[in-house]
Amino acid sequence: MKAREYEITIGPTGEVEVHVDGFKGRGCLEAIRFFEQVVGETKDLRHTSGFYEPEEDVRIHGEQRH
Fold it and tell me: What distance lies between CA 27 and its chain's CA centroid?
């Protein structure tokens, strides 16, 4: 299984960019939903070539600590 990578950038005015890599098909959307719970709603979404590859089963497990 290919490693999944997440890159989160917070700009000087508070805008957040999330880049996910290592997903095939729509699996990346599940990862984006997880990050939306943390940072807020997605305003712009751009698909990479991996989005158009055959689907794979993706399960996201995360926890938020304060």
Answer: 9
Q: Is 64 part of any domain?
A: no
pLDDT bracket for residue 64 (50, 70, 90): low
Domain residues for the domain of 42 are 5-52
Whether the CB-CB separation of 36 and 8 falls below 8 Å is answered with no
- pLDDT per residue as tens digits for the range 8-39: 888 898 888 888 888 888 888 888 888 888 87
Domain count, the chain: 1
Residue 31 belongs to a domain: yes
pTM metric for this prediction: 0.59
**Buried/exposed code over 16-41 (b: 16+ C-beta within 10 A; e: otherwise):** eebebeebbeebbbebbebbeeeeee
